[in-house]
Amino acid sequence: MSLNVSGHGAGANPIELIISTIWPVLHGGFGNLAAYLAAHVLLCLLPAFFIAGAMAALIPTEIVTRFLGRNSSKSVSYPAAAAAGSLLAVCSCTIVPLFAGIYKKGAGLGPAITFLFFAPAANILALVYTGSIIGVDLAAARLILSLVFGIGIGLIMALVFRADDAAHELEADSLFAHHAGIGMARGAVALLFVWVLLLLTGTLKLEVLTGTYVQIDLPLLSAAAWQETLNQLVPFDAAKGEEGVSIQGVALIALLAAIGWAAWHGLENIQDGANRWTWASLALIATTLLLAAMAVQATPAGLSIGLTGKFFGVAIALAVLYWIVRKRLSTEAVVDWLWESWRFAKQIFPLLVIGVFVVGMIRVLIRPEWIEALAGANTVLGNLAGVTFGVFMYFPTLVEVPIARMFLDLGMHRGPLLAYLMSDPELSLQSILIISAIIGRKKAWTYVGLVALFSASAGMTYGAWVDGTALWTLVLGLAGFVVVLATLLFFAGRKTPIVKGV
Amino acid sequence: MITIKVLGPGCANCKRLEEVSRTALSLAQVEADIVKVTDMQEIIAAGVIKTPGLMINGKLVSSGRIPAPATVADWIRAAQ
User: Fold this and answer.
1) A76 and A169: one domain?
2) CB atoms inside a 10 Å sphere around CB A7
3) A98 chain-B contacts, CB cut-off 8 A
4) Fewest CB atoms within 10 Å of the CB: A149, A264, A493, B18?
5) Which residues of chain B lie closer than 8 angstroms to A272, CB-CB?
6) pLDDT in tens, A299-315
7) Are residues A227 and A128 in the same domain?
8) Catalytic status, residue B11
9) Is the pLDDT confidence value at A97 over 80?
10) Residue B47 is part of which domain span?
């Protein structure tokens, strides 16, 4: 949006001047927030919170950590560390204690680092949110490159500090040895599976899902006028990435507020057992998902409501979920699951709302030319700029995604954008300090350096792919890069065999 | 005298577990000290990988989840 409100002459008084400067900024914030809540959040974030909750509550930690012990071969322990990252840890609050636990309880430095790197970048919430706001291509790149580089950084750290690591082995307890035979309840697996299906049904843009099968026309003559009013309040301009709010969006925002209210009374105290509010909040969530899956359009004749493939898919998934929860899960498991889901929502959602609002305000102030000049093309400088911004800025979990979207709209190239997206959640001053308390300052700063280096290379690689470089060239280049780095480190480690951490 | 330890770095779950423990104590009608353990080294030493952990009289009874107040009350009675 442009600063078009400031059409005052030189004689305008100071108050008018202030209002004319601040108003567009605030307006930008509210517009961005309303558009996000109405368009993006529901079909992707609601299921994602429930999936994250199910993962945290229903997957036993030992199911993955038992593969992390020193006796496991590298080809098992590193992928297991990555799996642990994406399955067990959803927010940074769980990642660092888990990292400390894994490291102290007998995992090598390498797998522990792989876990630390992979978890914030590739957990379900981050991937789903990136996919729906920025694009599936960037989510896939984030997943694949985090996996490759996460394991790479883990291997390098293990190699550089192998003298330390051997000493650490002697003192760590080998907790992971005796946990064989722990499985996951079948009901829990089914629950996760159906939620993932629901998420895919809600977000995939397939013809079968987006097509309308049943059309209902409500003779609401004022619908068109309402939409007109909404368009005035939240102006929309597809070219600038502004989305506007529909009548359906307003209904969804109202439902969200109702869910928040009901959940505060029904999920906050879920350990005491389910009450009427619990069921009310779950029913509201189901309604919201169903409404979000409809195609609603204001026409001059009224409001036309289309029941899409999505709608039917979501309805079936919800029915199956109801059956699983009633018949296939213990009350204890359901309580744990609802609590974890609510906790994630309560912890992340408010930050996201504030973050999106602030991003909307900042966007009005930043000139696209600045971003284009700095990171408009896939250059080394552009990627380094992305990484530097990512390392030194701290944003709460997931807020990096709307920020990245803002940069994209302002003309940032997708390469530097990925570099930023990879480094931001990995590193902040705060996390660097905690990590160095656990593994020592020298190891921590080596890790920071490697993350910066690898994020920039990830950005370069993806950027080159976007610009049309052939895939095999990139794979070869990547492999060569890793081999060279590993060889260098190996020889460096040989010459000075005692590389001691703090 | 029963000692209850809530192990966790101070995240939302640990606070909630502390509340649940208090409710459980009043359910079981038992007097006890509730100690919050926030030191990471000590938490890990207790064998808790996933916080929050709950210890009753030095025995780890739950970790990684928040048990229902009635269940905790049962554990407290058993520990008496």
Assistant:
1) yes
2) 8
3) 49-50
4) A264
5) 23, 68-69
6) 887 888 889 999 999 99
7) no
8) yes
9) no
10) 2-79
Chain B nearest C-alpha distance from A142 (Å): 26
In a domain, A197, yes or no: no
- Torsion of Cα atoms, A201 then A202 then A203 then A208, to 10°: 50
CB-based contact (8 Å) between B13 and chain A?
yes
pLDDT of A500 over the 60 cut = no
Same-domain pairing of A125 and A171: yes
CATH number, domain at B14? 3.40.30.10
pLDDT in tens, A346-368: 877 887 788 888 888 887 888 88
Cβ–Cβ of A100/B40 closer than 8 Å? yes
Q: Evaluate whether B44 touches A104 at the Cβ level (below 8 Å).
A: yes
A229-280: pLDDT as tens digits: 888 777 666 555 556 678 888 888 899 899 999 999 999 888 888 889 999 9
**Considering its fold, how many domains does chain B have in total?**
1
For residues A37 and A151, membership in a common domain is answered with: no
C-alpha to C-alpha distances, A360 to A35, A231, A402, nearest whole angstrom: 10, 17, 9
Which residues fall within 8 angstroms of residue B39, CB to CB, at 6 or more apart?
none
| Closest residue of chain A to B13, computed from CA coordinates | A343
A152-190 in b/e burial notation, b at 16+ Cβ within 10 A? bbbbbbbbbbbebbeebeeebeebbeeeeeeeeeebbeb
Q: Provide the residue range defining the domain that includes A461.
A: 62-185+366-495
- The residues facing A307 across adjacent strands are A214
Tell how far CA A292 is from the center of its chain: 20
Domain count, chain A: 2
- Taking the Cβ of residue A57 and every Cβ of chain B, the question of whether any pair is shorter than 8 Å is answered with yes
